Structure formats: structure tokens, C-alpha cells
Predict the 3D structure of the following.
Amino acid sequence: MRIGYATLPPALGAALILAASAALGGEMPRYEVRITNITQGQTFTPILAVTHAHDVRILELGAAASPELEALAEAGDTAPLSDALRALGDAVGEITTSPGLLAPGETRTIPIQPGPRARRLSLAAMLIPTNDNFVALDGAVLPRRGQQTLHLLAYDAGTEENDQNCAHIPGPRCGGAGASAPADGDEGFVHVSRGFHELGAEDELGNEILGPFSYDWRNPVAVVTIRRIDE
């Protein structure tokens, strides 16, 4: 994963900011983001939403997850990723985290605003109960008018073995640890999740291993509608 952006020459960066502000009449537009959980048995942790420049990324498929993404994918903790994004200055617009959990079939609405350079939207939230799976939107262009609807996939951070063992899964269903030490079963890179694959039982210590009947899914896992609300 890469959290960063290419540096523009100062004069060019200033010109782009002024041009964007003029095109918008000196005011930033406002948006409403609606996220619906369309899984049968997975809950989303609080959802991180951020507007940002085109060259900022919160994840990179096929690459190792950053520590900030690992914290979100394994424990649902959005604070480290929020802090890393905030450190990028005007390449990032608004950062917000929705309150509470989003259960299957439920919808959450998040208001969000871009900045002069921040005309794209990214979202991320952990899926529980899983080891290190998360739902994400990576850098969608905000619509200039009206709305657009997108379907989101679940990803695997590749930072924790997918043993489906409640001892290693946080949240109300399992109450286990939010992070685990590196293990041989870690994939080591961010990839599209393949869901649950253990059949379910108990380990030698009596910890429950969750099975696919109640908790597996097929992508996509969420529907997102981004709507401009100040027209």
C-alpha cells in the first residue's frame, strides 16, 4: 500500500488550486455518501471516508499492506490511517469516520466535502467476524452533478492467517484479539478476498472456528451511492 502523492511545482500547484476554486464559484461542493451492507452475515466496523487528490491511495493491490491499513483490517481501528492521510496536507480534503457498526442489510449515510485538490473519494471498513478482511473504495472520482452508484469488493490485507479462529477475531461475535503476530499463513499482500474456507469446529483450546454457512459471502459486499447535495 502507498499513502503519498507526487510533489507538484509550487507555481503549478497554486495555479491548479486557484482554477479549481474559480470553477466552483469559490465554494466547495457537498456530497452525501450512502453505504449499504449487502452481505448476509458480515458486519462493517466504523467506516473511514476521505476525499483526496488523484495521486493519493489507501491501498495497492498486490503490494504489502501498510501498518495503518493492517490496523484497520485486523482491528477496525481507523485512527492510524486517518493520521497518515491528515499528514498529507492539502492533498487530502475531509476525513471522517462513521459511528457504530453497520449490520447486514443496513445503510449508513456520511456527509463529506472535497478540497481544492481533493476531488476523489475513498472508503474502508473491516468485515467482522474475519481475521483481516475489509471493504474498500479506492479513489472514485466525485460526480460533478447528480449521483453515481458503485459496488464494492471485500479485500484481504494479507497480514494475518485466515484461520477463522475466534481467538484471533475482534468484535461482538468473537471478542478475540484485534491483531496477531506474523505467521506462515499470512499471504503478505493485499488481494481480493476469497471469503471463508475453513469448515468450522473448535481448536485444541476450545476456541470456536467459524464456518462458512453463516459468515461467507460472494463479492460485491456493499453498494455505495455518492450524491452531490448542493445543486
